[in-house]
Write a structure and sequence with these properties.
The chain has about 280 residues and is an alpha/beta fold. The chain has a single domain, classed as Metal-dependent hydrolases (TIM Barrel, Alpha-Beta Barrel), CATH 3.20.20.140. The protein has 11 helices and 8 strands. Helix 9 packs across helix 10. The chain is globular. It binds zinc ion. The site of zinc ion has 6 residues, from loops.
């Protein structure tokens, strides 16, 4: 089983996770930019974070034979903090870099006017930079939030096939399917979607435009949920090719729209040259 995890925050995971992921069949991933766990106090915090996603984390992944890519953005939660909004001025110079395959994650958390503004501005950046977009949907008010998300996407002028709407469930999948966007599902140990419910949705909606991710981060999460979903699909009678569509071909097709996917893990030296970073002379 070859696996591309389209949404996982490796910064908060260990080398044991990388090793287990490699053994489970994970060969590529996308790490979207998200919050720090505590408030950022200035724009430099984003600059260091973006540089580390493009350099150090990519190097770490390559050591385990995993091709690392990222999506960069001001995430919805931090869009409400005035100390963070300045990042929208530095984002454009990052969106042109190798390894950046989307703008994300953007969207709504609490649906504030500040989030409206950051979301719209970043969809515009995606259009201008010809990049696909990864959109987070809120955990509260999910239906209302998803509906509003799709309205904003429609108004942005972005083609629906350039947009992946994530963290969907039974109550939100249909409107995203009807809108023509890609559908993302985060499979978690005890909240949101689980493998069994995921397989039921695949049986109902088919495998086209469907993506499954672990969205693993600092919270209780499991970076092997992609594989576990693949196994649950096989148990339920899906074929190997269906599993390959959901866990590999779909993410490759969606993020491939950036023109920047590199499915061979980048060698450490190449990452160093690309970022001009000296941090890669570290251990191992
Ligand atoms: Zn996330």
């Amino acid at each position: 089983m070859r696996i591309f995890d389209p949404h996982i925050h490796m910064t908060s995971r260990t080398t044991d996770d990388y090793e287990a992921m490699r053994d489970a069949g994970v060969r590529a991933l996308v790490e979207p930019a998200f919050w720090l766990g505590q408030p950022r106090t200035n724009v430099g915090s984003f600059v260091d974070y973006f540089d580390s996603l493009l350099g150090w984390e990519r190097f770490r992944a390559a050591q385990f034979g995993i091709a690392h890519h990222c999506a960069l953005a001001l995430n919805p939660k931090e869009a409400n903090d005035p100390r963070c909004s300045e990042v929208l001025d530095v984002l454009p110079r990052y969106l042109v870099k190798d390894g950046v395959v989307a703008v994300g994650e953007v969207g709504y958390d609490s649906m504030t006017p500040e989030e409206d503004d950051a979301f719209a501005r970043q969809l515009e950046l995606a259009l201008r930079h010809d990049l696909p977009v990864l959109v987070h949907t809120p955990h509260r008010d999910k239906q209302e939030g998803t509906k509003r998300t799709l309205d904003v996407v429609r108004e942005s002028g972005l083609a629906p096939h350039r947009v992946l709407v994530d963290h969907l469930n039974e109550t939100t999948v249909k409107m995203v399917a009807d809108a023509g966007c890609w559908m993302g599902f985060s499979v978690y140990p005890d909240t949101k979607m689980d493998e069994t419910r995921m397989v039921a949705l695949l049986a109902e909606y088919g495998t086209e435009r469907m993506l499954v991710n672990s969205a693993a981060d600092w919270g209780r999460s499991d970076p092997l949920k992609t594989r576990k979903t693949g196994l649950a699909m096989l148990d339920a009678g899906f074929g190997e090719s269906d599993v390959d569509t959901v866990l590999w071909r779909n993410p490759v097709e969606f993020y491939g729209q950036s023109g920047r996917l590199e499915l061979e893990p980048v060698a450490a030296g190449a990452v160093d040259a690309a970022t001009g970073s000296s941090v890669l002379r570290g251990e191992r």
